[in-house]
Amino acid sequence: EVQVVESGGALVQPGGSLRLSCVVSGVNITTYWMNWVRQAPGKGPEWVANIKQDGSETYYVDSVKGRFTISRDNAKNSLFLQMNSLRAEDTAVYYCASRPGWGQGTLVTVS
Amino acid sequence: QSVLTQPPSVSAAPGQKITISCSGRSSNIEKNYVAWYQQVPGTAPKILINDNDKRPSGIPDRFSASKSGASATLGIAGLQTGDEADYYCGAWDSSLNTYVFGPGTTVTVL
Description:
heterodimer, A: mainly beta, seven-stranded mixed sheet, B: six-stranded mixed sheet, three-stranded antiparallel sheet
């Protein structure tokens, strides 16, 4: 069974930084593109970023370009999201998402 | 405004079949795989369908999906109260180089 566990969410002031982590078990993530998806309160999901299997390609939604960096450590079956210059509109539950499944999310509040 | 279009809501009685449409463009649905997600209020989204019409293990065969051109459809047969949720379609957009979600469809079992 695939398990996806995110961590690192917190309350942070505008302009601050956070690093989200995601650990996947039950499947080898080297096979998959990995994504971060966020969902603001009362809104639908919004894709944030993704990274190719070997880390050679990354893509971001325009609103986070230059502020967020996605990375992965395949040896540790892990995914990361470094978030800098955080804004109030970044407040959301952040999900680690891939073809095998999604995690339960970690809450980031910028206030 | 979403790149993908879904009806805001669909409702039906238990046991009936419903369909949810998802309309897009040549750069997303027509060109790339479509996925469908179910989100029960207060929980994380769950993948119902991958690759246009493939159910991951554990997803009942009451859930089906298809794609034609720049449109996709999710079907739910034998509707159950536990199917009350928000349903989202999603696809990679090759012009935007982003993954796009539909606005979601709320399913109500009458």
